[in-house]
Design a protein that fits this description.
Elements (H helix, E strand, L loop, with lengths): L6 H9 L20 H4 L13 E12 L2 E12 L3 E5 L6 H8 L7 E6 L2 E2 L5 H6 L2 E4 L11 H8 L8 H11 L1 H5 L10 H14 L4 E5 L7 H16 L4 E5 L2 H7 L2 E6 L2 E6 L1 H6 L1 H8 L2
Parallel strand pairs: 3-8, 3-9, 6-7, 7-8
Antiparallel strand pairs: 1-2, 1-4, 4-5, 9-10
Helix pairs in contact: 5-8, 6-8
Bound molecules: adenosine-5'-diphosphate (ADP) and magnesium ion.
Adenosine-5'-diphosphate binds next to helix 3.
């Protein structure tokens, strides 16, 4: 696999040294959707050395109308990390994601990215800074082709290297290359999720926020989606993984947060979270 999904990722990888190659073994499940180079990865096998803080969220508050959803949430993601944000349906995970990305205006607290204050910045400025989200529900443009959807990913950022980034996305998702001219809305759910991630990669993310990438996929595709995320991470991408799928998220995460009713209930290592039967029962349904 080529080094990193883009130059910015390569730079972050330089700072956050990690062991690679552990997943380069044959024998992964191969389906008709994801390449075996991706599915054969061993998520979480890389030695993770976190770099400087990329995303720094402090006491963030946000809501809808008079209803406050986020009640002062603080979290951080360092360069080279994959951080899981867990919590049940309605906990406020997507609201947090959208408040960070400029979709829902924060009512309090602050968001810093790579040392810059982006609280209440426009979505476009946030994208230009390299903070890229793949929203829940994919949000691809169904009437545009696969290629058009991917090209839109580099509308605000990454345009000078669009052709090279497109080749990298196609190397990661050969299925997308086979379907460049297909209307995105006619693709399967798994393919649409790949397109949504590919579109995010076109913007040269310094941090990629994935909001429930496994939602609505078959169990086999869920496995492969997590393997893919593990592989992108092993390739140097920093990821905030928002998920209800606790077990598989903790398998690939360096650190985890648990959100419940708009407040954090846990912050720490996956091992520490899994060691607490109380936390697992109360917040994770395990
Ligand atoms: N656009 C919206 N307008 C009003 N309330 C919303 C909106 N989006 C989410 N909510 C409410 O905010 C709370 C948190 O939702 P959400 O952030 O989507 O949770 P999660 O992503 O963890 O499932 C829920 O009570 C939900 O009903
Ligand atoms: Mg959500």
């Amino acid at each position: 696999m080529s080094g990193g999904v883009n130059g910015a990722v390569d730079a972050d990888r330089g700072r956050a040294q990690r062991a690679r190659g552990a997943g380069d073994v044959a024998g992964g499940t191969v389906t008709d959707v994801l390449p075996d180079a991706v599915t054969s990865g061993v998520p979480g096998a890389a030695a993770n050395v976190a770099g400087p803080v990329l995303l720094d969220v402090r006491e963030l508050r946000a809501g809808y109308g008079r209803v406050e959803v986020l009640r002062g949430v603080s979290l951080e993601v360092r360069a080279g990390e994959i951080v899981a944000l867990l919590g049940s349906n309605g906990a406020g995970k997507s609201t947090l994601n959208n408040a960070v990305c400029g979709v829902v205006p924060p009512t309090g607290g602050r968001v810093r990215f790579d040392g810059r204050d982006l609280t209440r910045a426009s979505s476009r400025d946030i994208v230009c800074a390299g903070l890229i989200q793949v929203p829940e529900g994919r949000r691809i443009f169904p009437n545009l082709t696969v290629l058009e959807n991917l090209e839109l990913g580099s509308y605000a950022r990454g345009r000078p290297r669009r052709a090279a980034n497109l080749e990298r996305v196609f190397a990661t998702f050969p299925r997308l290359k086979e379907r460049v001219a297909q209307k995105a809305g006619t693709m399967s759910g798994g393919e649409q999720q790949m397109l949504a991630i590919g579109r995010g990669l076109m913007a040269e993310p310094r941090l990629l926020i994935l909001d429930e990438p496994s939602l609505g996929l078959s169990p086999l595709l869920v496995e492969e989606m997590f393997a893919l995320i593990g592989r992108l991470h092993a390739d140097g991408l920093s990821v905030l993984l928002v998920e209800q799928n606790v077990g598989q998220s903790l398998d690939i995460a360096d650190r985890a947060y648990v959100l419940e009713n708009g407040s954090l209930r846990f912050e720490g290592s996956p091992a520490a979270l899994l060691a607490s039967s109380e936390l697992k029962r109360a917040y994770l349904g395990l």
